[in-house]
Each structure stands twice: as structure tokens, then as C-alpha cells.
Amino acid sequence: MAENHASAAARAADADDHQRPALCRSSFIPAYSDVNDDSLEGSAFRPLIVSVSGDSHSDDDRPFSGGGRVPVPPFSWRRLWLFTGPGLLMSVAFLDPGNLEGDLQAGAAAGDALLWLLLWTTAMGLLVQLLSARLGVATGRHLAELCRGGYPDWARRALWLMAEVAMVSADIQEVIGSAVAIRILSHGFMPLWAGVVITGLDCFIFLSLENYGVRKLEGLFAVLIATMALSFGWMFIETKPNGKDLIIGILVPKLSSRTIRQAVGLVGCVITPHNVFLHSALVQSRKIDPDNEHGVREALRYYTIESTVALVVPFMINLFVTTVFAKGFYGTKEAGNIGLENAGHYLQEKFGGEFFPILYIWGVGLLAAGTSSTITGTYAGQFIMSGFLNWKLKRWIRALITRSFAIVPTVAVALWFNTSDSALDVLNEWLNVLQSIQIPFALIPLITLVSKEEVMGVFKIGPRTQIATWIIASVPIIANGYLLMDFFSSEMRGVLSGSVICVAVLVYASFLFYLIIRGMKLPNSSI
């Protein structure tokens, strides 16, 4: 009788397993037991999972203790609030100093003519981030972890290296942006290198809020984003832009040969490689069972709403910045000389400030942008390192290593370029090139994985969505390819440099081709 009972139980368990979405049975997705507890934070959030159950304490941050899971009930505003948070951290990548520099240059060079492109590129970025969130919710793993299981060792390490290069490149820009803001707010007293050190230290201070609950950290980001909105919104009101020109710029697509470079720059900065890895991990700060189809569908609905709303604010802030510089500098001789380092001084000379010096308003907004983006960059670095390499390190050690990757070269850069705005602009161009090169190494694995039933189960994207996604993803890739060709054609001369570039392009294209072919064969291929 006991044997019959055990046999029936085994059959029932097997039947239950077959009823689940095929999410975690694929050989290239690491089992929970294969990942150490510290890295299966999936993130820094592992001990700080926010409960989304229906009990009276669901608003509290609490340790993740496993056990039974309560299915997500029907839609409610209160439950949407419980899922609100990851989108705030994700949206910061649309507001980092690199994006602000693209905005001000687009406004100065093209006026309001590229506002329509800003709208559509933000929508394009939203699609990519929704795919990243979908991957994290449906599998219970983030992108870097899935890449570790889906590719051979050499390819996995190459992808990790590309992700680290992209993250450090973005981090240098973000830290320098904060340092520039500190120099502005200190009236030039603080040198650039000191601002870099302060930014590195305050990043650790803000990250310590995590010990008091993930909601506290998300609240900090809400404050920083609100600070940016108020600062740049104040500038927008102070400069009194033409409402008719603004509406026409948003609704009527216009593009000329004179503004093609700025247009391509706007498109190219939409996809931030480390943010693609980041969002797939952030969504796991809520307790969601990837084997519960109803719960996953509910979570995806909430995260779709939350991410969409979260990106409305960055769009408005980017619009404010673009419009302010369009109003002040479009068609002037200063338009070609404006960069992140001297933008505040140009604003002060042009507008002054009716109630408060506009230079300092710009500095406050820039500091909030740099601070928030450096914090998310540190988180992304932890996810990338733990996911690809599965290093068994304490969180604070991993954060220190991640910070050092960015702070050490940034201090060197700040010491070297402390008084040279033009040199910093050249550096920014090179950093943009480095980030542009890395974009396909985040997009190709992401789209490949969300298209696979063996990975996503019933939550894989359909054929039409796959086609649309590949087309949309190709836009920033092509745009960045154009920028790279334009950059190298102007910077590189001679047979030797041309030969080196040709070899590098061949290796680069071969690896991309491999990733695409490998993706077609996942998960059964062993190449």
C-alpha cells in the first residue's frame, strides 16, 4: 500500500511538473542549488525581497525565507504600488550625464526638430527594458546568469568582458558628470579629481540604505529623479520656450543632412548595455514564483505599467533639457562648442536666472543625474560579475571591486583633463564609441533568450513580436555603426591604423555572427 501511495505521489508530482511552463528545466539555466546564496541575490536584493502577498504586512521589506507563495490577486492600485520601484532604478539610465549631453547638443544643433525622435527612441528603449523584465520574471534568473548557462566558457567570458567595458565606460561618464556638478556648485573650489572621489564615497553611503530595506533605496531614487525634474523643469520655465514650436517638434518628423549626426546620437544612447542586464535582476526584488503562471502574468502586467510610467518622467526631463538649449543656442556661434563641462557657464551667460542663478540649477540637476546613475552602475556591476562568473564574494567586497573598476581610471582621467574642457569632450566621444560597440552583446542574448520556449515556457514572445523586436533592435545597432564609421574615419589615418581597424571589425562581426547562430541552436547545441 505504501509503495502504491508513493508511486501515485510520484506520478502526481510528474504531472504537476509537466503542467508548469518550461522555465527552469533547460540544461543551460542554472538550478537554484547551483548558485551560491550570496550571488543568488541575483543581485544585492537577495535578502531584501519585497513581499507582494496579500497579508497586512506586505508593504514591509522582509527577508526572503522561501516557503509557500501566495498567488498574486486581481489588479488593484495597492498591488501596483507594491511592484513600483524597479522601474525607477531602470529609468535612471535614460537620464545619465551621457544622455543629458546628447540632449543639449541635439537642442543646440537642431533646435526643436528632433523632439519627435526623442519620443520614439524612448519608446524603443521601453520595449527593450520590458523584454529584460519579462526574462527576469518568467525565469527567476537575470540575463547574466542565463548567459552563463547558455554559452560555452570562452563566449561567456567574452560577453562578461564586453559588459564590463560598457559598464566602466558609462560609469566614467557618470562620475565625471557628478564631479563637474560638484565643481559648479563649489564655485570652482573643488577640482575635478576631488569631485570624483566624493562621488565614489557618497555612492557607498547611499548604497548603505539597502541595509534598511529595498524600499528605502527606491525612495532615494524617487527623490533624485524628482530633483532632476524640478531643476530642469525650473530651467524650462525660466527660458520660456515657444509652445507651438515644441508641439510641432514632437508631432512632426523632420530630419536634415545637417542634423543627422545629432539624430544618430540620440538613437544610439537609448540602449545602455548594463541597464539591460540590470532590469532583469531588479524585477526579482519582488517575491514571484516563476513556476506560477498566473502570478507571472500578473507581475508582467504590473511591471509593464510601472516601467511605462517610469519612463514618462525621463522623457519629459530630456525634453526640458533639449528645449532649453534649443531656445538659447540654436543658430548661434556657440552651438558647436557646448558640452557637458561648459554648458552651465553658457546657460548663465545667456539666461542668468530671474530668481536664482541658472548655473546652480543646472549643477543640482546634473549632480542628481550623476549620483543616481553611479549607484545603478554599481548595482549593474554586481549583477554582471556574479551572473557571468558566479564569484562567491560578500556584497560589500563585490561593490568595492565594481567601484574600483570605474573610480581608479576616472581619477586618472580627472587629473589629466582637469582644466581642459575640449579634452574631456574628446574623451566622451571615445567612451561613447566603447559603449556603442557593446550594445549588440546585450541585445542579441536578450532577444534570443526571450524567444526560446525552453527558457521562457509559455511566456516566450511570438514570431511577429520577434520580427518586430529584431527590427527595432537593429535601429540603435545601425545608428551606432554609423557613428563608429564616422568617428574612425575622422580619427584614424594611415595604413597601420586602417589595418588594425579592419582586423578588429572582422573579429567583432565574427563574434556577433556566432552569437546569432548559437542562439538559433539553444539549448541543445554544445558548440
UniProtKB/TrEMBL annotation:
Residue stretches of biased makeup (Low complexity): 1-12
Pfam families associated with the record: Nramp
Similarity comment: Belongs to the NRAMP (TC 2.A.55) family.
Alphabetical GO biological process terms: iron ion transmembrane transport
Example of a GO cellular component annotation carried by this entry: membrane
Region annotation (Disordered) ranges: 1-20
Subcellular location: Membrane
Protein name, as recorded: Metal transporter
Keywords tagged on the record: Membrane, Transmembrane, Transmembrane helix
Membrane topology: Multi-pass membrane protein
GO terms, molecular function: cadmium ion transmembrane transporter activity; manganese ion transmembrane transporter activity
Segments crossing the lipid bilayer: 115-137, 188-207, 219-237, 263-282, 303-326, 359-384, 396-417, 467-484, 496-517
Main location: membrane
Tree of life domain: Eukaryota
Keyword Transmembrane: yes
Cross-referenced InterPro entries: NRAMP_fam
